[in-house]
UniProtKB/TrEMBL annotation:
It comes from Dyella flagellata. InterPro entries: AlkB-like, AlkB-like_sf, ALKBH3, Oxoglu/Fe-dep_dioxygenase_dom. This is Fe2OG dioxygenase domain-containing protein. Residues 92-190 form the Fe2OG dioxygenase domain. PANTHER family: ALPHA-KETOGLUTARATE-DEPENDENT DIOXYGENASE ALKB HOMOLOG 3. It comes from the Bacteria. SUPFAM superfamilies: Clavaminate synthase-like (SSF51197).
Length: 197
């Protein structure tokens, strides 16, 4: 199983059997996190999208963009972010996906990543930038334990491949105002998917 390679300050959300899911705050400084957020907000190739829900087309409540690691258009700071992540997680990442939560109205519904879009037994790692948002992590089977995790700027969240079988995760809408946040997700995708980009 893939876990964060350092121990001090790591919070274990799920064990090695159903996960792992681990959280590490302050992997980069608050100043670096702020600089990276500002740059990605301006440089990201942001897109809005739609999806079918309840038999009607609705807007996805966040912006997003995706890069292959080999993409010539990959912003330099994402190379720097990848280098930081690989200091802590030993995985052959080849894909970076970004979600831009503009305010408290943007969200992502409970879900797990689609396993056919991931290389088996490779982790997903999220680097958080910008405002702190709450992620809800809930077991799919009884007891349906729920964890509310505050994702701070500069933190890393690792979700093992196996965790997608056992847990859903979400970023809920909020009633109170909150600033914008960018989630930078590092994944290992099958080569067929990378080439399709």
């Amino acid at each position: 199983m893939q876990t964060l390679l350092f121990e001090p300050g790591v919070q274990n959300i799920a064990d090695e059997v159903t996960g792992p899911i681990t959280y590490q705050p302050a992997v980069i400084s608050s100043a670096t996190a702020a600089d990276w957020f500002a740059a990605l907000r301006e440089q990201g190739d942001w897109h809005a999208s739609t999806r079918m829900m309840y038999e009607r087309l609705v807007g996805v409540p966040r912006l997003h963009c995706h890069y292959a690691i080999t993409d010539p258009q990959l912003p330099k700071l994402l190379h720097d972010a990848l280098a930081v992540v690989k200091q802590h997680v030993d995985a052959p990442f080849n894909s970076i996906g970004l979600n831009f939560y503009r305010d408290e109205h943007d969200s992502v519904a409970p879900h797990n990543d689609k396993l056919h879009e991931l290389v088996s037994h490779q982790p997903i790692v999220l680097l958080s930038l910008g405002a702190t948002r709450t992620m809800l992590i809930q077991r799919k089977q009884p007891p349906r334990l729920k964890t509310e995790l505050e994702l701070e700027a500069g933190s890393l969240l690792l979700m093992g491949w196996n965790a997608q079988l056992h847990y859903d995760h979400s970023i809920p809408k909020l009633r109170q105002p909150v600033g914008p946040r960018i989630s930078v997700a590092f994944r290992v995708r099958p080569e067929r998917d990378i080439k399709a980009w």
